[in-house]
Amino acid sequence: MPTSASARRHFESLSDAAERTGLSVRTLRRRIAAGHLPAYRSGPRILRVDPADVDRLMVRVPTV
Known about the structure:
Elements: E1 12-13, H1 14-21, H2 25-34, E2 40-42, E3 46-49, H3 51-57
Antiparallel strand pairs: 1-3, 2-3
Pfam families: HTH_17 (PF12728)
Protein name: Helix-turn-helix domain-containing protein
Domain Helix-turn-helix: 14-58
């Protein structure tokens, strides 16, 4: 069954996610270990995250 381009998931490396959000790779790894950020493994060393999941870590701080 073919998947449409809009249904295809996109992943990024931890270094790309860190650069995009201003977080460190170490922080992202801690969030993965704590269960706050889902990660996907492809092989023994390749770890990827969904950009939408990373974006959900970023919570707006309410202003007064």
